[in-house]
Structure formats: C-alpha cells, structure tokens
Amino acid sequence: MIATKSYAAQTKTSPLAPFSFERRDLKPADVRIEILYCGVCHSDIHQARDEWGGSIFPMVPGHEIVGRVSAVGSAVKKFKVGDLAGVGCMVDSCRTCVSCQASEEQYCDNSQTVWTYNGRDKDGAPTYGGYSDQIVVDEAFTLSISPKLDLAAVAPLLCAGITTYSPLHHWKVGKGSRIGVVGLGGLGHMALKFGHAFGAHVVQFSTSPNKVEDAKKLGADEVILTKDPKNFEKVARSLDFIIDTVAAPHDLTPYLGTLKRDGVLVQVGVPNKPLEVPVFPLAIKRASIAGSAIGGIKETQEMLDFCAEHNIVSDIEIIPMQKINEAYERVLKSDVKYRFVIDMASLAGA
Ligand code: NAP
Ligand code: ZN
Ligand code: ZN
Fold this sequence. Notes:
binds NADP nicotinamide-adenine-dinucleotide phosphate, six-stranded parallel β-sheet
C-alpha cells in the first residue's frame, strides 16, 4: 500500500484538514501519478458539504488532476514513468454496456461509473480524489497531457473543460450558431472560450458587473447583466443554444425567453434543489431543456488535444492546499477568476 498525504473533510460541516491514507498497490493496468496540481470545482463544495445527499466521509475531494507518472503496472501500454498525465471525474466503469462501449462511461447503463472521489471502487473501497500527493488509476481512465501548455492551467480542463466542450459538440455549436453562457465561473469561462473557438456568436450572462470586461476579453460578443430583467430584451428570441452553469437555484424563465424556435437550454450546473420548469416559454417555441454530465474518456482526450492545438487553458489563481477553506468561501461568493488550482507542492509541509 502507498502512504498518501491529503486534505479531507471528516463530516459535512467540518473544514478540510490534513488526512493520511493509503492508495492501493499497482495492479497490472494501473499507473501511479505524482499529483502536481488539482483544480477546485464547485462540485467539490456541493459534495464536501453533502448538498446532493449520500456523501461518503472522510472525503478527499478533487477531480481536476494533473501530474507526472511515477510508476506503471506490468501491462501498461500508454504511459511510461515521467509522462504528464491527467485524471478527471471518473476512474472506472462497467466497460461492457452500450454507453461504456461508446466511450460515454459517465452514463454507464449499469450505474457502475466509479467517481474519482465520493464513490466506491469495484471492490467497495471508498475513492479518494486529487487534493492529495498521488493517485493510482487504471490507464484506461488516465489522460495524456501535452507538455505544450501551462500544466497548472490544464488541470481545470479535466472537469470544467470537458463538461462544457461535450455539450457544445453534442448540440453541434459552430460557425453561425448564436449561443448563451449563463454564469462566468469555472465552467462558464471554459464554455465561453470553447464557444468562441468553435466560431459561435457568444452572449455571456452574468450577475457580476465586475466581470464584464473579462468576459469580452475571454471571447464574449455580448454581455448581459442579469440582475436587471430589461437587459434580456436585447437578446430576446435570438439564441440557438444556452449552456447554464449556475450552481444555485435560479429562475429559468428569462433565459428561455432568449431562445429561438427549437432552441435548447442545457443545464450543466447542478443546484442542490430542483429547478422549476416554466412550460409556456418551452411550448410556444418547441424549445427543450436538457442536461449533460462531463464527457467520456475518448472525448476528454479529444478536448485536451484540441486545447493543446489551439492553446486553450483555464484562467487560474494558484493556491496552497492550506488555503482551501478560504477558497471555498470565495467560490460561493462568485469571487474567483476563474478557477482555483491547488499547488500540491504545498502538501509536502502539511
Ligand atoms: P462556479 O465557479 O461557482 O461558477 C458558477 C457561476 O454561476 C458563478 O461564478 C456566478 O457567475 C454564477 N452564479 C452563482 N450564483 C448565482 C445565482 N444565484 N444566480 C445566477 N448566477 C449565479 O462553479 P463551477 O465550478 O463552474 O460549477 C458550476 C456548477 O456546475 C456546479 O453546480 C457544479 O456542481 C456543476 N458541475 C456540473 C458538472 C456536470 O457534469 N454537469 C460538472 C462540473 C460541475 P456570475 O458572477 O457571472 O454570475
Ligand atoms: Zn467538477
Ligand atoms: Zn457501463
């Protein structure tokens, strides 16, 4: 077993604090990764505070993991010691159902997706995430990372990146599309970058006046401040597609008013309470509300390769592990530009 340092939440009300545990010894298909950086996703907060229910404690959050391969099992083919590698939100699945065979492992038809943390491995052991100095993962769920990009800024691509790239692709957003991005946070700023890179006209919706200039620099063609309902009139019935990244309960009605006939609003933010569905604005335009969860391993690799080719990374603020509780409070106040990333070197002294 491999002694591992981390930060964990012991209960849903306790702050994260140092925690030691053991990773499994390498199986033939496993790689061991020395974690160098891990992004801080709003899902970490939802789960550490048990806002979705069913959380497993102690919990070591973190599913935006990048680092360097430090050991490989005897059957590993894709990686060698010293390679850069990444791990996202999942570390295994049934691998045999229709969805897994289609590399949509996050939608495993047998409900056997093994989440990187707050999940259980096939042997029943709890999984622990990336707020730690190393991780052991099957190579089939390990991603290759290009050395061309700033490694710390790549970390958020493993969740925020793929969660926004995947639905934009699925709904065929491209040149000529007019899209909306709701919320300029970790996911939102990646949706904005991808939408712009795919050639769409992007309207950024935000509650924060102090983010308007940034939104334009990140690629927004228009910015709508949502606290004044009149501002929505400027883009009424003009959008083909909206990606909504908001983590808190909110009214969908004004956003649905900006969709064209047959428009689609994809909810990727996962508030802890159900959202109300206003039916009139859907019915009068044959509009749809959909959901989407991260993306499969194949598509995640494709997204990472696209980012390496187009020089796309996340805008980040690097923090030491010891500042994680403060960082959570700032995320909750929408005060992050635009993703916190933990420098795991800070764990050495913990
Ligand atoms: P985040 O960095 O906190 O960003 C959310 C943004 O939403 C905020 O920065 C803020 O942007 C806006 N916002 C916050 N409260 C709001 C409110 N009450 N009304 C309207 N807008 C509000 O969070 P994130 O890491 O991007 O995650 C967003 C959500 O996606 C979370 O619920 C997370 O669990 C979920 N998620 C889902 C998936 C998936 O696979 N579906 C994957 C990852 C994360 P402005 O300041 O611009 O308004
Ligand atoms: Zn996430
Ligand atoms: Zn499956």
